Amino acid sequence: MSRSYLHRHIGTNDADQTAMAEAIGVGADRRRALERVMDAAVPAVIRPGGAFAPGALPETGASEAEALAELRALAARNRVLSPMIGLGYSDTITPPVIQRGVLENPSWYTAYTPYQPEISQGRLEALLNFQTMVGDLTGLPVANASMLDEATAAVEGMLVARRASKSTSNVFLVDADALPQTKAVLAVRAEALGIVLHETPYDPSAPAAPDAFGALIQYPGASGRIWDPRDAIAAVQARGGLAVVAADLVALTLIASPGSLGADIVVGSTQRFGVPLGFGGPHAGCLAVRAGLERQLPGRLVGVSVDAEGALAYRLALQTREQHIRREKATSNICTAQVLLAVMASMYAVYHGPEGLFRIASEINAKANSLWARIEATGAQVVHRSFFDTLTVRVPGAAGDVIAEAHERGVQLHLVDADTVSLSVGEATTRDDLASVAAAFHAVATATRPAFVGEFRSIPEALQRQDAFLTHPVFHAHRSETAMMRYLRALADKDYALDRGMIPLGSCTMKLNAAAAMTAISWPEFGRIHPLAPSEDVAGYLALIAELETWLAELTGYDAVSLQPNAGSQGELAGLLAIREWHRSRGELRRDVCLIPSSAHGTNAASAVLAGMRVVVVATAEGGDVDLEDLRAKITEHADSLAALMITYPSTHGVYEADVKDITAAVHSAGGQVYIDGANLNALVGHSRFGDLGGDVSHLNLHKTFAIPHGGGGPGVGPVAAKAHLAPFLPTAERPVSAAPHGSAGILPITWAYIRMMGRAGLTDATSAAVLAANYVAARLRDHYPVLYTGERGLVAHECILDLRPLREETGITVDDVAKRLIDYGFHAPTMSFPVPGTLMVEPTESEDLGELDRFVEAMIAIHDEARRVGAGEWPADDNPLVNAPHTAACAVATQWPHPYSRELAVYPAGNSAGKYWPPVRRVDQAYGDRHLVCACPPIEAFADAGSVAG
Predict the structure, then answer these.
(1) PTM N6-(pyridoxal phosphate)lysine: at which residues (predicted)?
(2) CA atoms within 13 A on the CB side of 622
(3) Pair 813, 748 in one domain
(4) Which residues contact 820 (CB under 8 A, 6 or more apart)?
């Protein structure tokens, strides 16, 4: 048993669990405490009674060493060749200080989304650096804090253009030379929204394009072509449309910025900024806009504000741009980012600076020029004379032979057609790689090694970059590894992550992200694989993906799984698109109504809108369940047009609804399909399955239930699982919802390792331990904060909602005050005001030990007592430890202490602690930041009062 990973993952032991079960009133018998609590909490009607197929999952878990050995065997089946396929992906070099200091550092990868800005200043600063980097390189003033990938960023750019355009056209022009995966994702998304795509060659000899609300221009093109798009941009804008430019950010260090050419919107990927290929992801996409479009931006935007003492502080700006909050009025369902990867990309720019980026780009261009000369000397035709890194070469009838010979020499090229080869040079391309490619074209070896810089210039003078970039001091201050290491440490020290303590966020499942499971993602056999590599080179990846799909299908009770969606929101969209296409395949074109309970996750309604459906809201009953009477009425009202019902199980209110099978049966009887949101799957694994409850399709959050880290707000993976009849409509490479065929495959080894180390028995115990922990917290706190919703026997699922509204009525202390005061006690706050305003939703997860659970409970009880002292008049309503929280070290040692409570109570409310977390700022003024919108690194003068020179 000592070798089992299970006891490393679950924080409570048998004795703890027995004591916890007694505390929640589950009587003792001969069974284990975990079995007793699940029998009490989970309705018998949803228990499978032996429905799990034998052998589909490993019954018991492997040790860490055994799982890593199996992963090594899978990795060995991947061939690490030199990837020169291009098409938006390039082999890059991750500086070791960034690999170890960010990617492999739990202070960065175990943090949550920076919704609590006071304990997220490090991540927010890193993201502001990212926004500044993207804005500078694109030549546009405002960039957001990253997108999921380039293809979905292009979709969001198209939707921004549609909203902002004055044109009445429903046509969107797409560059014929755009990346193929971008065109494919645009086609899927446009079709659901009634947008007509018109492919345009952008060639002077081509016929005039029709009127359009916008246009996508690839710059440089997928073929490598560099051309001047000024006239094309102006032509679109003259007819009321907006120009979206998809750009290569590394190329933009040498070629004119799209903003200087007149672009309204720029999209792209920052993968080349030190982020491993990872078979397609995760990578941070980017999106920047011209002035006037700031409030149209989807996703997250970091801005600059001030704290309670007027000091500069960062926070998420214009938070209503989290479009899912608008539910059925949403224009985007994006509710996450690729924070960990955006941090890596921003630090790559910080470490190299503008001079380093220019040097890297120049070397890339020089390598491409060297190949151009050697290939053309053979008589082959390089199609475009102006290029940055990519050559398209005509070799009539011999393209397959060139590809095969290059492959034999260890280099992967791209086969365009029987007569055409494409190849792309990257930062990691070596002289040996160039020699191998030249030899594949039968170029004569040169007597001298070609220079890397200055041999040729393939960039037209009129398109060479003139405007400066990365001028802020942060991009000039950290050149040595020592300086970079300390900068990363200084930022991490400002933040609160799981390496400091519990993050009890309801609906977010902030469980342990095992170091053993994280290990493999840094191996080159997983990291240096191009997403379009030949299948014979990725046998290990394909085996891992197939096995993981089988395991997830078994755990959910579905027949097929697609791992392609790279966020939960994209998994939702994929599932709804599958339902839409299934109805259409049956000729039921009128079915477009999606029923969604009022308590649902906001992304549900937003995803339905983007899938071309009409949202109809179903009421929630007083106990928190779906109102069955209202549901039946809505089904009757929309019987002929009902497409789907979306529900979350257990409910968004943290309760197992006993009548879930009645709900799903009612929808099926009316011809609809049932989408079960998988956000709360951590309360079901091993005990029940969506497919057995009547679900037809679900997305799963691998960054929640299956232990992929949240990474400070991304990456995520949101696979979609479905019954057999919907399986043909799940995402594929031909009908994608994300850029890469297998989505963010580079982090799938984490979930594979988690399931392999836990086994079926361990996964079942993890669910039970999570439910026990939530009920223990609820039982200990219910006398201080009412538990808003419970099941039939007074128990909750894996999370509980604490009602703080009575406390506010009695004392004036708000949910915000409690959340900020928890920082002084050394905790990240639970989820605030979701799904019910004025509440806290607590999810402790199975990974926390009893000591940490008790520490949280005692902090919450102490805060309740502090609030009562405010209500009793002991402290003024406007000057007490709660409304002034959090307290920084600076305010604690200030010469003057004007407050009616002691400094010690302010900063050490639970007693002196050697591990005290000190927030770097006081409470942040959210409204000020929105009124004075600054979304790039502020000038150095802004830090004068604070004495900081950080970016």
Answers:
(1) 704
(2) 0
(3) no
(4) 118, 829, 882, 885, 886, 923
The answer to whether residue 478 sits within a structural domain is no
In DSSP terms, which residues pair with 244 in a beta bridge? 216, 265
> Checking DSSP bridges between strand 390-394 and strand 82-83, what pairing results, if any?
unpaired
Q: Are 671 and 582 a contacting pair, CB within 8 Å?
A: no
- Token pair 């049966």 is at which residue? 665
Which contiguous run of DSSP H or E holds residue 697? strand 697-699
The residue whose two tokens read 């200091």 is 101
Describe the strand order of the beta sheet including 800-803 as a list of residue ranges: 800-803, 839-842, 831-832
* Residue of 146, 170, 148 lying closest to 158 (CA atoms): 170
- Mean pLDDT over all residues of the chain? 93
Q: Kindly report whether the global pTM for this prediction surpasses the value 0.90.
A: yes
Q: Please indicate, yes or no, if residue 95 is contained in any of the structural domains.
A: no
What's residue 322's pLDDT? 53
Tokens matching residue 617: 């809201």
Counting Cα atoms < 13 Å in the Cβ hemisphere of 197 gives 23
Strands (E), 540-603: 560-562, 593-597
| The Cα angle at residue 919 between residues 916 and 920, in degrees rounded to 5 | 130
β-strand 302-306 against 285-289: which pairing, if any? unpaired
Same domain, 746 and 875: no
Q: How far is CA 214 from CA 155, 200, 547, 937, in A?
A: 12, 12, 42, 30
Phi-psi bin for 833: left (phi > 0), alpha (psi -120 to 50), beta? left
837: nearest Cα among 815, 866, 807: 815
Report CA-CA distances (Å) from 5 to 33, 514, 517, 697, 770: 20, 9, 11, 31, 17
In angstroms, the CA 131 to CA 154 distance is: 17
Cβ atoms within 10 A of the Cβ of 44, count?
A: 8
SS3 state of residue 521: helix
Cα–Cα separations (whole angstroms), residue 26 to 199, 686, 761, 794: 65, 21, 22, 11
Distance CA 306, CA 310 (A): 5
Neighbours of 231 (CB within 10 A): 12
**SS3 assignment, position 449:** coil
Pairing of strands 242-248, 265-269: parallel
Residue range(s) defining the domain that contains residue 872? 804-885+887-921
Provide the CATH number for the domain around residue 146. Answer: 3.40.640.10
Closest CA to 253 of 562, 475, 521: 475
Return the exposure string of 905-920: e unless at least 16 CB atoms fall within 10 Å of the residue's CB, then b: ebbbbeeeeeeebbbb
In the block, residue with structure tokens 């993050």: 503
Cα 880 to its chain centre, rounded Å, is 38
Number of domains making up the chain? 3
Residue partners of 697: CB distance under 8 A and separation at least 6: 558, 575, 578, 579, 673, 674, 675, 676, 720, 721, 722, 723, 726
DSSP string, 708-771: ---TTT------EEE-TTTGGGS--SSS-SSSSTTSSGGGHHHHHHHHHHHHHHHHHHHHHHHH
| Token pair 């000899």: residue | 205
Please tell me whether residues 265 and 145 are part of one structural domain. Answer: yes
CB-based contacts of 937, cutoff 8 Å, min separation 6: 128, 129, 132, 472, 474, 951
pLDDT digits (tens, 9 = 90+) for 771-821: 999 999 999 999 999 999 999 899 999 999 999 999 999 999 999 999 999
The predicted-structure confidence for 675-721, as pLDDT tens digits, reads as follows: 999 999 999 999 999 999 999 999 999 999 999 999 999 999 999 99
C-alpha span between 906 and 891 (Å, rounded):
10
SS3 content of the chain, % helix, strand, coil (to 5): 40, 15, 45
Last residue of a domain, one of 329, 349, 369: 349
**pLDDT tens figures, 436-476:** 999 999 986 654 444 545 445 799 999 999 999 999 999 99
Alpha-carbon radius of gyration of the chain:
28
